[in-house]
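Annotated sample (chain length 807).
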Amino acid sequence: MAEKREKLVLVGNGMAGIGTIEQILKLGGAYDITVFGSEPHPNYNRIMLSYVLEGSKTLNDIILNDWNWYEDNNITLHTGTTVTRIDEGSKQVVTDSGMIVPYDKVIIATGSNSFILPVPGSDKEGVVGFRDISDCDAMLAAAKQYSKAAVIGGGLLGLEAAKGLVNLGMDVTVVHLMEDLMERQLDRNASSMLQAELERQGVKFAMGKQTVELSGEQRVSGLRFSDGSTLAADFVVMAVGIKPNVTLAKDSGISVNRGIVVDDYLQTSMQNIYSIGECAEHRGMCYGLVAPLFEQGMVLAKHLCGSDTKPYEGSIVSTKLKISGVDVFSAGEFLDCPEHTVISSKDEWKKTYKKILLKNNVIVGAVLFGDVTESANLQKLVKQGAVMTDEIYTEVMGTGCCGGGAKKSTSVEAMADEEIVCGCNGVTKKAIVDAVTEHGFTTVDEIKACTGATRSCGGCKPVVEQILQFVLGDSFQQAAKQGICGCTTLSRDEIVAEITAKGLKTTKEVMNVLGWKQEEGCSKCRPAINYYLGMMNPDTHQDEKESRFVNERMGANIQKDGTYTVIPRMYGGVTTPEDLKKIADVSLKYDVKVVKVTGGQRLDLIGVKKEDLPKVWEELDMPSGYGYAKSLRTVKTCVGSQFCRFGTQDSLGMGALIERKYERLDFPAKFKIAVNGCPRNCAESCTKDIGIVGNDGGWEVFIGGNGGIKPRIADSFCKIKTDEELIEVCSAVMQYYRETGNYLERTSEWVERMGLERIQMVILNNEDNRKELAARIDFALTQVTDPWKKMLNDSSTRAALFEETRV
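Output written by the structure step:
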């Protein structure tokens, strides 16, 4: 007869609670498990909400445990259900719908709620918090209707909300009571660097402001501050903090202070009732960061499974975050005090900052900004209370730009087995080591599939790779070698070399000859091979439309409602009255819903029906602006010396010349250029793949900029005196990128991978090589044609793509 299993009820379907259940399952805990969640979704990653807000991920992308996981593990899940009371006498939990479920043990993991400032007007329409998917949905909806937003709170959540709303097109001001952003994690130096970077990305700030009232009638219309000043806003996000959700515990007679009081084994004042996560209070501390919650979960899981475990004695708080593409880290103490010895370095050019705090020569805290490669090592040193030595100093701080020898890589050998490597998913070093030693896994992707490490923000990938290196030793490099996708073990360079050596001509031929695991390939490798073949043989390669992404096949950007955006070319952002009239006439005739001025100084015609696309192209009679392709998108310009009183160079003329010369040519990824007539940088060259800035002596060229999800300031590449030299250098840079870039790799990533000095050596220090690169791109340019014209003249393709067959 089977042994009777105890009934375990988890109240709260979030990361802390489900993380504990995952540990119980791994330990073989014999429980019948029931989970209650107030939200209508399975377990998802709240850390990734900002990605949902900015549009780079959906709810499905951030689900950690889908519906099938609960079923596969025999877990009963009740979503959209709130537990209102725990009856100790009858050992039952009671829900808001009247459901009664018996228990032997209960874990309360109800998390926290957004703290809404108790000021007049905080209950008005248009005021939300930022804690869950419904808050994201409210912000996405608001961005479609309203233009001015205020985010109250300069902590992590507030800054993520602000950047997300900026990306959605809103005018956003962060209102913060303190003078420094993220003052609980960062010191003044790091905070000011973060603020400057966010301001560059379009976020505004009102620092040292105390909100005393939200004005407006039914809907919020603005904020009033204690100093009498005001701020207009038709949407307000409250991100001033969180408060533990203790309602269930309080109503059930469980001891509560700020949070639910627990002991070192996470037991509450009620027998067999436990609590973990943001709702729990341990030794007077409530933790709002992920790592401590998973540490609690591991102790509780072992306790509930009867395994030996050390008690939970609290956590040394560390924070490793990526905010709008900027990496920040802090651990332990981070604010300077008289008793501290401070070791610091700040690089204004690279926008990096590093600080270590010592107390009696013991490492007690650290702050990193921009470059966080030493975060795991510093976290370990702070946790261990390590004594600073010359060896540690050299390892962590490096030898400086004038010193000899490279900085040591971060060692993972001394990490404790239970130390969390992946804070997003609570994966420990031991879990990763076990995946390697017990299952034979050898790659990061295999570790991700098995443990969940790196599947969220990806910030822990370097440490995962170091653990693989530590466990596998010399065999790691070969084991770590990964192909361009799961269909092959061949890298980009190996594929290109094989195409050349074997004279391969088509995608199918490449896959067949080089032994693809999947005969037809996949959506990653097919477009990549098609690009490599076209780049290498521009005159003989027949472009394979079936290997291109949908937008490239259709010659327009598909929108979420199934209509398309048409973007005609405007060289250097300049157009004519005649072309504007064509655009207006066509927009009216084909019921274009929106004509939008883009950041690249063009006009988007949004909402064109698929069947109307060929007629719109024909009647516009303008070149395609390639808004959909992996090619030159725009050349942004200022008015330059033709019109501006500060202009020193003809940026309009040069921008149009460059755009006409390089349009239609395929690149590994989309490509943007800007040309400024003077160093005032009105065309924003610093965030473009190639940025060109005019000065009295000629031009300065910058490369590798990016203003997208992972912003990067372009590197200064060279200074040039003549227009002819400028074109030659641009040609060489573009062709070298075309020939060495991985498919879908932006120049911002390419420059960092290749190294600026290496690119300069290949192009600037070798005139013959530069001219050869320029000649190869010129030859490739002779083979390109306008895709709209080509489609209009190809009746069979036009019919197949745009004339729907109706039965």
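Annotation: Confidence is low (pLDDT under 50) at residues 399-410.
Annotation: The two ends are 62 Å apart (CA to CA).
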